[in-house]
What does this fold into?
Amino acid sequence: MDFTDATDGLSLEEVVPQLLTGVFGQNNYFYYPEIDSTNNLARALASGGYPEGTVVVAEMQTAGRGRSGRSWYSPAQQGIYLSIILRPAMPLREISRISLLAAVAVAETLEEMGLQPRIKWPNDILINNRKITGILAEAIIRMDNVEYLILGIGLNINNRIEDFPEGFVTPPTSALAESDCNYSRSKILQVLLWRLEYHYKQMLEGRFAQTLEKAKSMSIVIGQEVSLDTINGVVAGRAVDLDDNGFLLVRDQKGVINKVMSGEIFLPHPDIDKLREY
Ligand code: BTN
It folds into this structure.
């Protein structure tokens, strides 16, 4: 598919007629030129009973949210800001699979665009060590089961690198910055929704292993020395693998394998070698 055509938007008319999904975005597609946060609206819709596969998309967000209380930079007509309602019948211990499968779906979409993405566990997508996509999965839990989950995804597409503000924890990039091409956001969204639905169905049908293998092969973290801030304190050692639920296995200096469910890995700044030259 040729993704290079920058003139389009993300309205229902531009996206839904060409969707190849069975459910995602087909029956409930909410489009806003401006919104506070697509995750906020998706959550309100989900609590009002909207079904799995309901999609909320915006051209810009005034209060886009990231992980760990951070904000998500969401300028108009440059990125894709997307939230999907999921209602998986699954136990809480498997919930990390969803953000991992979302990372694989995004990374495959970027690969199809000719880019070379890597997954920074658990679910950041980097190109050349700069962040192009963030994923925020927010779940409502009842009795140790997932009642519903809002999967929020922000992709930097046609942003010029000089337009990003200062102060990102991981330096940002965009598809434009990595390739010098402007991209059709509607085509990217169509492919992404199809890939998300594919990996989600695979997981529900007990075939998560293939998605997990893909996540491992695209990982920028496995094999590296890492130090993570987790809710149980700092875990340091070599990241050796992902387990069946997508938890990171870190072997510490004593040879003990630590299973990490979530945490933040800090990688060296992408310009570290350049900085050292001066
Ligand atoms: C992160 O890396 O910190 C996660 C960023 C998630 C951003 C997306 S944009 C669409 C959706 N709506 C939000 O407010 N956040 C997510």
